Amino acid sequence: MGKKKGGKSKGYESKGERPNVSKWCTKTMRREYMQDNLSRTLNQIDAWLKGKNVMVKVANNGADAKKHPFIRVPANQVWGNPTAKYSIKSSD
Fold it and tell me: How far is 2 from 50, CA to CA, in rounded Å?
């Protein structure tokens, strides 16, 4: 590890090569998060509103529905464009 630029050294700094959390712990945390539909959906909506590329799982209506009952599609196809401007027009 080379010398850092500017100022005093703050001691040892990890290279960040390996995770410091065990695999079983991260798997369990992910499994619990994926089971909690409400918080996951709220996070997806927040990301969609920010314009990020969100994928949503929807029911498959195609010919291979038995093989793949659900498919992943972009949220923009399901929920529309989050930055679209809407105006209410009167018929007067």
Answer: 39
